[in-house]
Specification:
heterotrimer, A alpha+beta (163), B alpha+beta (310), C alpha/beta (650), A: 163 residues, alpha+beta, 4-stranded mixed sheet, 7 helices, elongated, B: 310 residues, Ubiquitin-like (UB roll), Alpha-Beta Plaits, 8 helices, 13 strands, globular
């Protein structure tokens, strides 16, 4: 996922600056830990240890608590992820209409399993509980785009256009 | 404060308003098992072993977090309660090693005691179990997370001392685990080995390394002593076997009683007949150090020698 | 005046900083503070453009940009239509309106042409030229894009005559698909913020609570607690600060009504929350939205910004002295945060683990303050209750379940999508009259209602009235309103296993019964599906489900065994068939299937032999082939390829 913050941060300094900005923004906000972690992940693509430590210090929250929060929510990642995030829906309607075959097809094409990232960092394959697009089952999301009425072949083909 | 009257197992009990059913039952002489309940830390209500049956309530509420109210009718050992407790124990045992024979906590373990009480012979279910590596990374605390029942008392008591909060709940669901940040060993964390967590662990997940193999729970007599190294007045236990002090363990981690390693080591030196060498972290590694170094007395002792040697 | 919400002339003094109490009324019926026909006309023109009158000679094209239609390509459709209108010199004359979800996602992308309400389905960008030439210019219908009923083969010309919509009562959804959700003026033109105006100027907070009590509205998020009663508790609670929180963490697999309301009519939710804030005495609110709903978050951000800009949210709303501020919190991916105490814990910045109740959020909620927590659909009902009165609302529905309920109808049913009906309609009417029955001539087997907390109901309960109490007594629950239809090829043990897979992976891990119990229940169900079950497993399931239901900490934990309890109650024979006969009656459990080739039908063409990935099929050319059961991986490739129906699965 690319950052939406509008700043260029192709180097660590710029990322650091963006993080500092986010932390300043939430300085006086109650319950800021999760929104800051979300912004930090937008900036870094994942949550490196040093970033979590910096956030903990900034908010005067024990690092153990920050780590506990990060590992609780499915959205947060401790390792770098691919440029394109594929999330295959495992919702009820998708299940009934063959989502597991779609998953197997994509998994075979990419050569990675659930939560795996391809070596070239092009794709990360994930599942999601329900995308709420049940009328189009089976469905997957690639980054912010939803693709519906999939077959294993159609799903694999769709991925080609994501560099 | 106003009082309320309730009936527990057919007996009328009068307690002050705000008392939990658990405490009211204790007042009436009825024992209710608990794992996660700890009067010293905020209520949690997670382990569910203390559930009771209350007339008019849909489910079986946890007695540790349910307030006694006027006219309440409680049954602490109804068939539904017994079935629930038995099943919860079987669930815990299904994900807990059955190595009681060699477990340091054998004889001092709530999981064992309650299984005995409810006639639970073993795990009721087959299936996956945790396979965490043993954390034997430091000279003071052995952490076996396979034995952890996730009552959370260790993490909650650790967080009570300003600046500690070394461990917390991590991950989610079946994978939930109490761990230091980044799920490292204790040695790699900021743990100060005060032993608060050891004092509250109801099972064999946390044990004293310096006591390992020295005796069984029923052979050891505990004698409380108050530490005088600082003015916190923390309580420790002298562990006595065959008339010899074999170790010192942390007592109750009450309010304002931080407990600390220095205090515990100082008492070991004072009371133990044969205390093991102390170890301290130097440049990230644990190394053996002198007692005066461990207790931070180097300068003081030099001065005393100088003054008194005069 | 560029917009209905702007001032008509300098005589209007309304701004967000110096608000006017007649602001909303003025925009629809004004001007009120002065007499000026020209000003009146300006308003009428804007209103007329938002909803074209039936006899208008203007045309307006509504294109659905809900998540469903968006992914079916409605974005490309808009672009193409803009180009095509420009090419025909119609760009200024015919307005394109981007709307939220119509609910009939199955048929998307959807297009409605007003004022005739011509309803085109599955519109492709290649159809655009024909629509412009034939319909918009020529005034003729493009027959082939009209909806055809798969059962009666009749075509429906307008939106209202499509059977899917005809039997519905779209109250909460009445704006969805018909207004531009990114325009406050569209909402106001549809009587938006009239409910808030009425509450602020015609009622005391107590009277608002009474009005909601009179309406009989019950929480639409799951358990169905009476909304007015909840508001009353929060109002009575002591506290210098109170909060209103909207639960938009819609996580039940199969449910997407909250998403559609947020995407299609976000102001209805904001208005409902503001009314609630006024009633209970709160000046601040949070919307906790699933991170998986980026479009909903975006639409809410736009809606809040517009509402604040025009002074219908913020400080001293319409000079009433009441202030109300709203913030959005994006969830971070945890189903359990749909449970109210977990949601509050999560807003506070913690692991979303439920807290013990009491204290209830009404007394001690967000940061320990009295908090009124309702879900999206509940809040979206409120503006209409204030506008039309509680008694009007209570005239719909059954004795104890008032108003309407939105269901997400999915699974093995012809018309999948969002359906809003008056409470008390039978399941049969929803599935067969609105849903159009089961596709492919298959037989209905069961309907799963209420998501992971709900249960499966068999065909003998098809005539059950759909309301809170009948569903609960039948062993299911309203839940958030997911309705998954299953036919004879759906295995009920597999469905129970599916839901347990979900709850097991979403259990927060705090309490023992849910953390350990879901794992063990799932393992037992998996063994049964794989043909490794034992008869005593049924007793074990019976016991664990009872204990988990009785002892789990939160509502989600207590209800997670429901899919097992209800399938054991109505479909025990399927469990027994899996265990004793090692057979899946629905033919769905892969491990229990066997593939064989009918030698009489097989022509020995060799197609299956080539397509088998496991090299399990052998045979000479033009001779009947054979499947080696030991090698077969039961993938089904052979059966899909065989032209002679020679491969049998059993």
């Amino acid at each position: 996922m690319t950052c939406q913050c509008g700043h260029a941060h192709n180097d660590d300094g710029a990322k650091q600056e963006a993080l500092q900005k986010a932390m300043d923004k939430y300085k006086t906000v109650k319950g800021a830990l999760i929104p800051i972690l979300q912004e930090a992940q937008e900036i870094y693509g994942y949550l490196p240890k040093e970033v979590m430590q910096q956030i903990s210090r900034g908010l005067s929250i024990p690092f153990s608590k920050t780590f506990g929060v990060v590992t609780f929510y499915a959205q947060f990642h401790l390792k770098p992820r691919g440029r394109n995030i594929i999330r295959i829906c495992q919702g009820t309607a998708c299940h009934v209409r063959g989502a597991s075959k779609v998953f197997d097809g994509v998994s075979a094409k990419l050569g990675v399993g659930k939560n795996g990232t391809t070596q070239d960092l092009r794709y990360t394959l994930e599942t999601v509980a329900c995308l709420g697009a049940c009328g189009l089952a089976p469905v997957m999301m690639v980054n912010d785009d939803t693709h519906g009425r999939l077959t294993p072949d159609k799903a694999a083909g769709t991925l080609e256009k994501y560099e | 404060m106003a009082n309320v009257t309730l009936t527990i197992n057919g007996i009328k009990v009068i307690v002050s308003k705000g008392t939990t059913v658990l405490d009211a039952a204790a007042r009436a002489g009825f024992f209710i098992p608990t794992f996660c309940h700890d009067p010293e830390i905020p209520r949690f209500g997670a382990c569910r072993i203390c559930v009771v049956e209350i007339a008019g309530m849909r489910n079986l509420p946890a007695s540790c977090v349910t307030e006694a109210t006027e006219g309440m009718v409680v049954n602490t050992e109804s068939p539904a309660v017994a079935e629930a407790r038995k099943t919860i124990l079987e669930m815990l045992l299904a994900n807990h090693p059955q190595d009681c024979l060699t477990c340091e906590k054998n004889g001092d373990c709530r999981l064992q005691d309650y299984s005995f009480r409810y006639g639970v012979k073993g795990p009721g279910f087959e299936g996956k179990r945790h396979e965490y590596p043993l954390d034997d990374s430091n000279p003071y605390i052995v952490r076996d997370m396979n034995k952890c029942i996730l009552c959370g008392r260790c993490a909650r008591t650790c967080a009570q001392v300003e600046g500690r909060a070394v461990i917390d709940f991590t991950y989610r669901g079946f994978d939930t685990k109490i761990a230091p940040p980044m799920d490292t060993t204790l040695a790699e964390s900021d743990c100060v080995y005060c032993g608060r967590c050891l004092a509250v662990c109801p099972v064999g997940a946390l044990t004293y390394k310096r006591m390992a193999g020295k005796g069984r729970a029923w052979e050891i007599e505990k004698k409380p002593v108050t530490c005088t190294f600082c003015d916190s007045g923390c309580l420790f236990d002298l562990n006595i076997k065959d008339g010899k002090v074999i170790g010192v363990t942390a007592g109750s981690p009450g309010q304002g009683r931080p407990l600390c390693l220095k205090g515990r080591l100082g008492l070991e030196l004072l009371y133990c007949d044969d205390p093991a060498d102390p170890q301290m972290k130097r440049d990230g590694e644990f190394v053996k150090v002198s007692w005066s170094d461990a207790l931070g007395l180097d300068g003081v002792l030099d001065k005393i020698r100088k003054i008194e040697g005069k | 005046m560029k917009n209905l919400m702007d001032k008509c002339c300098d005589k209007c003094t309304h701004t967000a900083f110096f608000p006017c109490k007649d602001y909303i009324k003025c925009r629809k019926e004004g001007p009120i503070c002065h007499q000026d026909e020209a000003c009146k006309q300006k308003r009428a023109d804007f209103l007329g453009d938002i909803h074209l009158a039936a006899d208008s000679d203007k045309r307006q094209v509504l294109i659905c940009a809900g998540t469903g239609c968006n992914s079916s390509g409605s974005g490309r459709l808009v672009k193409k239509l803009q180009e095509e209108l420009a090419a025909n010199g119609l760009a200024d004359k015919i307005k394109i309106k981007i709307t939220g979800c119509h609910g009939f996602c199955e048929q998307g992308p959807l297009m409605i042409i007003e004022p005739l309400k011509t309803f085109y389905t599955r519109v492709d960008e290649n159809d655009v030229a024909e629509i412009v030439a034939k319909d918009l210019i020529g005034g003729e219908l493009v027959e082939r894009l009209l909806y055809k009923d798969p059962n009666t083969v009749e075509t429906a010309k307008t939106y209202e005559t499509v059977p899917f919509y005809a039997r519905q009562k779209r109250l909460v959804l009445h704006n969805c698909g018909h207004i531009n959700p990114e325009e406050l003026s569209d909402y106001v033109a549809s009587d938006g913020y009239f409910g808030l105006t009425r509450a602020l100027f015609e009622k005391t907070p107590d009277q608002v609570v009474e009005e909601v009590k009179t309406s009989g509205l019950r929480g639409r998020g799951g358990a169905g607690f009476p909304t007015g009663m909840k508001w009353g508790f929060v109002k009575q609670a002591q506290g210098d600060k109170k909060y209103v929180v909207c639960n938009a963490d819609e996580g039940d697999p199969g449910a997407f009504m909250d998403r559609s309301v947020l995407e299609g009519d976000p102001h209805a939710v904001l208005e409902g929350m503001a009314i609630c804030g006024y009633a209970v005495g709160a000046d601040e609110g949070y919307l906790y939205v699933r991170a998986e709903y980026p479009l909903a978050i975006q639409r809410l951000k736009i809606a809040i910004a517009q509402a604040e800009e025009y002074g219908v949210l913020g400080d001293n709303i319409m000079n009433s002295g009441f202030s109300f501020h709203l913030k959005i919190k994006a969830g971070a991916g945890a189903f359990v945060c749909g449970e109210e105490t977990a949601l509050l814990t999560s807003i506070e910045g913690n692991r979303g683990m439920p807290r013990v109740r009491p204290p209830f959020p009404a007394n001690s909620g967000l940061w320990g303050k009295p908090t009124c927590l309702n879900n999206v659909e509940t809040f979206a009902n409120v503006p209409q209750i204030l506008r039309n009165g509680g008694a009007w609302y209570a005239s719909m529905g059954t004795e104890k379940s008032k108003g309407t309920k939105i269901f997400a109808l999915t699974g093995k049913v012809n018309n999948t999508g969002l359906v809003e009906v008056a409470m008390g309609m039978t399941m049969r009417d929803i599935i067969f009259a609105i849903g159009g029955g089961i596709p492919g001539g298959k037989k209905f087997k069961a309907v799963q209602i209420g998501g992971p907390s709900g249960g499966c109901l068999p065909d003998e309960l098809l005539d059950l009235s759909v309301d809170y109490d009948s569903l609960t007594s039948a062993g299911a629950m309203m839940g958030s309103g997911g309705l998954v239809v299953m036919d004879e090829t759906t295995c009920m043990v597999d469905i129970a296993r599916y839901f347990l897979t979900f709850t097991q992976s979403e259990s927060c891990g705090k309490c023992t019964p849910c953390r350990e119990g879901t794992t063990r229940m799932l393992e037992i169900l998996t063994r049964i599906c794989n043909g490794e079950g034992k008869m005593e497993d049924i007793d074990t399931l019976d016991r664990i489900t009872r204990v988990v239901k009785n002892t789990a900490l939160c509502g989600l934990g207590q209800t997670c065994p429901n899919p097992i309890i209800s399938t054991l109650r109505y479909f025990k024979d399927e469990y027994i068939a899996h265990i004793q006969e090692k057979r899946c009656p629905a033919g769905a459990c892969t491990a229990l299937l066997t593939y064989t080739i009918n030698a009489e039908k097989c022509k020995g063409c060799g197609k299956c032999l080539r397509s088998c990935p496991a090299e399990a099929i052998t045979g000479e050319k033009k001779q009947p082939h054979v499947i080696d059961a030991a090698k077969c991986i039961k993938c089904g490739s052979c059966i899909t390829g065989c032209k002679f129906n020679a491969i049998e699965r059993g």
